[in-house]
Every structure is written in C-alpha cells, then in structure tokens.
Amino acid sequence: MNNVSQPPPPGHGLPPSYGPPQPSGPQPSGPPPSPYGYGYGQAPVPPPQAGHTGTAGHAGPHGAPQQPYPAQQPHPPQQPYGPYPYGPQPPGPGWGPPPPKKSNAGKVVAIVLGSLVVLGGLAQIVKYSASGNRGPDASAAKYEVSMPRTLLDGKYKLTQDMSDEAGTRNTDLAAGDEQYVGMYSGGSGKEQLLYSGLNSEATGGEGSDDKLLDGMSQASGTDVAVPRREIVPAGGDEPLTCEVITKSRGGEELTIATCAWSDPGSVASVADNSPETLSSDPDEVDLEALAGQVDTIRDEVRSPAG
Q: Where are the residues of the annotated region Disordered (predicted)?
C-alpha cells in the first residue's frame, strides 16, 4: 500500500483567513494619547465585541456582516487655565459692581429751600417793624440776641453764616438794627438747625413772633401742616410759638418745623433743617422735643440789651 498524504479533515489546522493579508512585523504606532482624554478630532477606539473577530465591514464567523461603528463627535478642546487659579475669582452671574452711592444733591436742595423759607420769615418781620408799627413800651426791659459759635452746650457748631445774604434781601433795616441767620450742624452732620434773629427798636411788640412765622407760612408754595400753638417746655416758664409747615417745589414736599419767641427789642426763631425732618411726615414731627431744644437755645443767645 502506498502511503499517500491525506489533507487534514475540516476543523483542524490553520483557520481560513478573511480579508486581505495582514502585514507582519511591528505596526506603526498612532499619536500618543492626550493626558486629558481624546484630543480635538480624535475619535475613541471602540472596544471589541464578544464573539466577533471580523474587521468592520466584513462578515464574522457567526453570520451577517458587522456594521461599522458610528463616528464619534469630537470633544471640544480643553480651555487653558486662567491667570489666577488661586487668586480672586470673577463674580458669578447676577453679581456686578456695587451700586453707585446715592447723590446728596436732593438733600442739599432741600436744605437750601428750608433756608429760603426762614429768610422769608425774617424779611417779613423786618418789613413789619419798618412800617411804623408801635414797638414795645419804652419802660419795658429790652433784650437782644446774638449768634454764638455753638449751640446746645457745644453739640451744634456754626457751619454757615448767612447774615450777609439776609442783609441783601432785607433792605428795610433801620439804622442800628441787627439781623442774624446761621446754619448749625450736630456732630454727625445729619442734624441741622437754622437760627434767625433780629434786634430792632421797632420790634418785639406783642405778636412779633407770629409775624415772623407768618412770613414763613404765607410764602409761595407753603401750607400750614400742624397748626401754630404755644408750648411751654418741660422745666421752662416762658412759652414758645411753634408750628409745622410744608413747602412744595418741583413735585417735592418739604416739612419745616419751627419755634419762635419775641422780647421787647428782639425776635428770633429756630427751625429744624435736618434732612430727615425735611423729608418726614408733618404729623410725625415732635414739636415738644423741638421746643425743649429751642428753650435752651433761647437762654444761650439772649441777653439784656445795653
């Protein structure tokens, strides 16, 4: 018998190859992986499927050809680190620069308007005194007022002397008459008092303090908000005439609280010209408290004439 070599039965030996022959030897390597994941335009390599060994697009050993993997969307490039990884961070949404401070222009205008009202009252009493009205009795003790550098035991300091401005408005002053107008501010600067006074031989008669307040309440754009009344401050023995008026201008309403007094030879008033009071409700003004302050001021500015 001849020994003829037989081909190996199916299922033994090398498996049949599919597709083009693969080159032998070392394969060229791809680009190095990005340290932060897949780079821009670089698709990830899909993992092998269990039970499939064919190349994409060719049939595997178990039937239908395997579909190629869909192209992956490229990852966006990673942003570089900013210049301040540990420093102050920029504000997040909804944050921004601090709002600008409110302007003080409105407060200044209110204070000026309050001053003009007081100057108008002083002008009225000057005209009244110069119109031939009978002054105080010649035998009555006369008093005069001054304008010191401080008021209320030094708590308020004179910050603006407006006496010269009052002089340009009041041209009816008689020889020897003296008038004073001054703004006083407290320690914080938010509390302000406006003082006015007149020394005149023709003033100080009965009702002079009313005439002074009339000049304020009868000015254009003003109304009496709290009616005038006499107040004897606690611990005092002399009355003060006090009222609250409002002044309207440019759609804004100012609240001006004032107390006045008169003596033979002089008349004076003190108005609360603080921004808080100027913008307050007239009914909320404490006239009793203001009268207590003015009673102390009266003792500080008044002295016997001569």
A: 1-105, 264-285
- For all residues of the chain together, what is the average pLDDT? 73
Using the CB atoms, write b or e for 216-247: b if 16+ within 10 Å. Answer: bbebeebeebbebeebebeebeebbbbbbbbb
**CA distance linking residue 268 with residue 121, whole number of Å:** 10
Q: Which helix (H) or strand (E) holds 212?
A: helix 208-217
Measure CA of the first residue to CA of the last residue in the chain; give whole Å.
169
Beta bridge partners of 151: 156
Distance between CA atoms of residues 154 and 169, nearest Å? 30
User: C-alpha dihedral over 118, 121, 123, 124, to 10 degrees?
Assistant: 170
Helices 208-217 and 105-130: angle between axes, nearest 10 degrees: 140
- State the sign of the Cα–Cα–Cα–Cα dihedral 101, 102, 103, 108: negative
Phi, psi torsion values for 299, nearest 5 degrees: -65, -25
Q: What is the pLDDT of residues 280-289, one digit of tens each?
A: 999 999 999 9
Alpha-helix residue ranges (DSSP H) falling in 57-197: 105-130, 163-169
What domains sit in the chain, N to C, each tagged with a CATH number?
A: 106-136+144-304 (3.40.1000)
pTM: 0.63
